């Protein structure tokens, strides 16, 4: 790329190419759109297969950490090594003993621990206005 008249570039300076940046940005946007479409299709499949809300939420949690995650009927298949069957509890994680199974079990345990903490928090927040109303009466 030639410098415009009156402009000089020093050795080692970088000249950015607007076209190159635009092409890279278009590629990134297309990739993000593909990923979002795949996630929506996966969610639609789960709903149409009659997967419980808990199963769908667990799938989303696992997918955040491990992208190699898919539905096989109502079962969640992770890394082609671990299968989680309904009702999607830790004891429903099956596969060859090893790091993959152990890692998935930890994700499932944490998912349900966090979900329970969230429920407790919501209950305490729901009870707070009732307590305040009773105190002000």
From TrEMBL:
Compositionally biased intervals (Polar residues): 119-137
Signal peptide residue numbers: none
Top-level taxon of origin: Eukaryota
InterPro entries named in the record: AD, Lsm12-like, LSM12_ABD
Segments forming domain AD: 28-116
Cross-referenced PANTHER family: LSM12 HOMOLOG (PTHR13542)
Protein name per its UniProtKB record: LSM12 homolog
UniProt lineage: Eukaryota, Metazoa, Chordata, Craniata, Vertebrata
């Amino acid at each position: 790329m030639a410098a415009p008249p009156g402009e000089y570039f020093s050795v080692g300076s970088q000249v950015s190419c607007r076209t190159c940046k635009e092409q890279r940005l278009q590629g990134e946007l297309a990739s993000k759109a593909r990923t979002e479409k795949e996630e929506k299709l996966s969610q639609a499949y789960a709903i149409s297969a009659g997967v419980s809300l808990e199963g769908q939420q667990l799938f989303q949690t696992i997918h955040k950490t491990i992208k190699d995650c898919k539905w096989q009927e109502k079962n969640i298949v992770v890394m082609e090594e671990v299968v989680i069957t309904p009702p999607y509890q830790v004891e429903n994680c099956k596969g060859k003993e090893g790091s993959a199974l152990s890692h998935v079990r930890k994700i499932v345990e944490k998912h349900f621990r966090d979900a329970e903490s969230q429920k407790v928090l919501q209950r305490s927040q729901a009870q707070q206005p009732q307590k305040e109303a009773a105190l002000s009466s």
